[in-house]
Amino acid sequence: MLVLGLVLMQRANLNVARPMDGIWYLGLGLSVGGVFFWLTAGMTRSQVWEWIKGAGLALACALVIRWAVAEPYRIPSSSMETTLHGDPRFGRGDRVFVNKWIYGIRVPFMNKRIFYGKKPERWDIVVFKSVEPDAIHKTLVKRIVGLPGERIQIRNGRIYANGQPLVIPDFMPPNMYYTSPPDARYGILADDQYSLVPPGHYLVLGDNSAQSRDGRYFGWVPNENIVGRVACIWWPPSRWRDFTGFSRTLWWRVSVIVLLAFLFTRMFIGRLWTVRRGDRRARYAVLFPSYGFRIPMTRVWLFRWRPPARGDRVLCMLPNEKNGYEEYLMGTVVGLPGEKISRENGEPRVNGKPLAAYGLAVNGRTELVLEGETDGGGKKGPRETVLNGACAVLADSSDDAAEVSSRCIYIVPLKFVLGRCYPLHRAEISTSPAARNG
User: Residues 31, 142, 209, 212: which is the catalytic one?
Assistant: First the structure.
């Protein structure tokens, strides 16, 4: 399904002679469906429902941002060369971000505004809905040249506004000139109908004047048709360009530094974690480098400087072999590598001693979960295992691991212990200093 959808989208993008929006959206639907069935394969009904709710919320947020804030747009033609490289083929041409709120928020699917923002300025590069009902490309990108109320004339390669020649800014392509073809009327003929820009309208022209079908042919563009201002070229990276100057401001530099610092901290240093027991909550800071250095988002440890100590509160990753997904567990280390852990009458013991003998004060009854054992409804008999390359962790309940029992001790391989946890509020399970000394 995914492959078929991608093929249909590719065919639709390659067809320039006539629009194939229906085929493209069909391909998009098949692609999304293929990805959905691939991601949810092996999930239970409740897991699929939770996944749909999360994906739906993310999609709703993305649609709101795309409607009101910013939207990516690809350049379909060469009318804005050399400023913007256009190519209708799949994966070709410049990709730009369009600032959609700067001129005011538009009503979805309509050429009307909920409110008006900043007025478009001369030399702004804008994306707008075509005023030609039979246009091949319904959404176009051009540069604003003529403003409302101005009398525009293009002659001898220059543009005159109210009789005065316009000075081409330095940020525009060098040797810039505009043609005045005989089959064009707007901005060419002297009649008011074709030279005087009406109120609330603009004259838009392509930088590649000789090869651009722009306002000289289809006329004035109403403010309501303007989708937004082109902010930057974001793809390909070699073509990155900021048209607004925002990347040179202090706000941009501070924002990038903060974002990079957050990502670095989240991937290499640690994160926050919430533990819930009944109506009480506790917040913890999880430090990843506590026991070594792990490649982010993998199970590969490059270095290990020490194993967890008894009494350490740790965050662990528990792979689920049934569905292939991973669950996260926070708990207290009660058994160390090389020790024997057993169960007598349902109560866990480490090297034959109860947990209290190690200074571990645990409220309530605990159970020992050993790999491969089943309850079967009867009384569990004595069990014993040696913690080879693993530790025993008394689990807490957590918002992120709702299915993990808070009354169980799990045998966790050391490679799945992600980091040590430090309380930001009062801890739920208390440990005495004797616990750390074994």
Answer: 142
Q: Which is nearest to 301 in space by CA: 314, 291, 311, 316?
A: 291
What pLDDT, on the 0 to 100 scale, is given for residue 261?
Answer: 95
d(CA 144, CA 157): 17
> 234-263 as b/e, with b when 16 or more CB fall inside 10 Å?
eeeeeeeeebbeebeeeeeeeeeeeeeeee
CATH 2.10.109.10 intervals, the chain: 72-248
At residue 59, the pLDDT reads 81
Query: Alpha-carbon torsion 291, 294, 299, 300, what sign?
Result: negative
Cα separation of 98 and 71, whole Å?
Answer: 5
How far is 163 from 141, CA to CA, in rounded Å? 27
Which of 31, 78, 79, 212 is flagged as catalytic?
79
Residue 335 Cα distances to 288, 292, 409, 415, angstroms: 20, 19, 9, 15
Protein fold of 72-248: Umud Fragment, subunit A (2.10.109)
Judged by DSSP in three states, 149 sits in coil
The answer to whether 118 is a known catalytic residue is no
Reply yes or no on whether 138 is catalytic. Answer: no
Alpha carbon separation from 349 to 334, 383, 389 (Å, rounded):
9, 10, 18
Digit-coded pLDDT (tens) for 360-418:
766 555 566 654 444 444 344 446 788 888 999 888 754 444 444 446 888 889 989 99
Q: What are phi and psi of 222, to 5 degrees?
A: -65, 155
Q: Is the pTM of this model over 0.85?
A: no
Give per-residue pLDDT as tens, 120-172.
999 999 999 999 988 888 899 999 999 999 999 999 999 999 999 999 999 89
- 162 vs 78: CA distance, rounded Å: 30
